[in-house]
Write a structure and sequence with these properties.
The protein is α/β, with parallel strands linked by helices. The protein has three domains: 4-65; 72-259, Vaccinia Virus protein VP39 (Rossmann fold), CATH 3.40.50; 266-482, Rossmann fold (3-Layer(aba) Sandwich). It contains ten helices and 23 strands.
Length: 483
């Protein structure tokens, strides 16, 4: 049987430029069945960096997968230890909730520990779970429970709290689930989430040592990092309020977000900051002033879009091409946006054309929100592509990105005030290097030309900017992919 329905695009941003991230062997998974496939292929969206599997299970495959239940998901399992873990989760919600008690919906309640502990604290609880045996058991204990998907649930009275403890990563389309959760919450309601944190150092260590269990987790469709999760919550009408570590599973996080009032999209003219870039040295040239720019919660900015504008983004270029929203001279390092107004930045094969690269990166930092992610694609410095194009003015190497952060300026001050933390460097190499060790490929990159076809850097805006201290420099994480 066909076990999965392929995703046609990223389930979060609908981007269609996807790279293979990891292919995992799932034959060791406790509920593995040959009908479900022996491997699980993870993709990474170039536009928003989200990592997800290449398809979600069909109804027939889900019935096969849910025919058995993990012991830890059976109601009453290790109830005393689970009660103490759940109590800390309830207490973290109580700190942010203005009233004592209220209505609490626990989605995917599993062993029932969070549901029953919230009840013990005085909450009026309701549970949802897709395993009918779990629902039957919880009902027999006197609790209201339903065997129904969240998006199909229509209660008559809204909830003060909705918890989704290690649930969102199991949902094929998380945005739809979060949007519906928002509709079920009262005006100041809280959303409690827990899941593995793909941004954590522990996650990176497990992955580096090839012992990360989540890539072979058949019931997971998504790997969320804290930063991408925060952006998703904001897109769906929530404001993150608290971050903590989860004791339920390895490398897990807990996030509490609050329902934000519904805001109608407001049309306003973006204002230019009065601050001048201290690094811009090119003579002033005319820049087309922006027309009215639609500013919702935040802007997704496609810098130097050329002939590849992105739907749902503000597309900016120095040439007046089809699909370009704003014509701006990037050498001037002056962008027509407010401070902290941009949530995502894409710059594909742009930076190598810019003389005033520090000025542009400082200006992008000004308009970026704290923790905003910038995905920058450039030709690698030792490739023919970096040299052949006469419009290229600068080469970039894997170690170049540190100079867009403040810690690298401990020896000199060139007036640069931006601060970007390098999250990841991906080098696309020729398929002939497949099977070689990381050290062998890295040695070839350092020694030979044309080993790397393209470099993709993922950077995160640090606000407030750090001090120029050498001790704050971090080691670069270099990954190789074939293409």
């Amino acid at each position: 049987m066909e076990a999965r329905i392929p995703y046609e695009s990223c389930p979060l941003c609908e981007g269609r430029e996807l790279d293979e991230h990891v292919v995992a062997d799932c034959t060791g998974y406790p509920f593995y069945s040959p009908e479900l496939g022996s491997t699980q292929r993870w993709l990474r969206c170039r536009a928003c960096t989200h990592v997800f599997v290449d398809g979600y299970f069909t109804e027939q495959a889900l019935r096969l997968l849910f025919a058995r239940t993990h012991a830890g998901q059976e109601p009453g399992h290790d109830i005393e230890a689970a009660r103490y873990v759940s109590a800390k989760m309830v207490e973290s919600v109580n700190v942010l909730h203005p009233r004592l008690g209220g209505r609490w919906l626990d989605v995917g309640f599993g062993n029932g520990a969070l549901l029953t502990t919230a009840d013990e604290f005085g909450w009026d609880v309701v549970g949802l779970d897709l395993r009918e045996d779990n629902v039957r058991t919880i009902r027999e204990l006197g609790f209201e429970a339903h065997a129904i998907e969240l998006t199909a649930y229509r209660p008559e009275v809204p909830f003060d709290v909705i918890s989704m403890a290690d649930v969102l990563e199991h949902m094929p389309f998380p945005k739809a689930a979060l949007a519906h959760a928002r509709e079920l919450l009262c005006e100041d309601g809280l959303l409690f989430l827990s899941m593995p944190n793909a941004d954590s150092f522990l996650w990176a260590t497990l992955t580096k040592n090839a012992v990360n269990p989540y890539f072979a987790e058949l019931e997971h469709y998504h790997n969320f990092g804290r930063r991408r999760l925060y952006r998703l919550l904001e897109e769906c009408g929530f404001t993150p309020r608290r971050y903590g570590l989860s004791q339920r599973y390895r490398a897990c996080m807990e996030v509490i977000a609050q329902r934000t009032p519904r805001q109608h999209a407001a049309v306003s003219v973006a204002k230019q900051s009065s601050a001048e870039s201290p690094i811009a040295t090119t003579p002033s040239r005319e820049t087309t002033p922006p027309a009215a720019v639609v500013q919702r919660d935040a802007i997704r900015l496609n810098v130097g879009c050329g002939r590849s504008p992105l739907e749902g983004w503000v597309n900016l270029d120095s040439a007046r091409l089809p699909g370009v929203d704003l014509v701006v001279d990037l050498e001037l390092a002056k962008l027509p946006f407010d401070d902290n107004s941009v949530s995502e930045i894409s710059a594909s094969h742009v930076l190598e054309h810019i003389h005033n690269s520090l000025g542009l990166m400082q200006e992008l930092h000004r308009v970026a929100r704290p923790d905003a992610v910038a995905i920058i694609r450039v030709p690698y410095g030792s490739s023919d592509d970096a040299d052949e194009d006469p419009t290229h003015v600068r080469r970039y190497f894997w170690s170049s990105w540190g100079y867009f952060s403040q810690p690298y300026y401990w020896r000199a001050d060139y007036g640069y005030r931006g601060d970007w933390e390098l999250e990841d460097v991906q080098l696309t190499i020729d398929a002939k290097f497949t099977g070689m060790s990381w050290a062998e490929v890295f040695a070839a990159v350092q020694r030979d030309r044309n080993v790397v076809k393209e470099m993709v850097a993922t950077l995160r805006a640090i606000k407030p900017a750090r001090q120029p201290l050498r001790a704050l420099q971090k080691q670069t994480l270099v990954r190789f992919v074939t293409g």
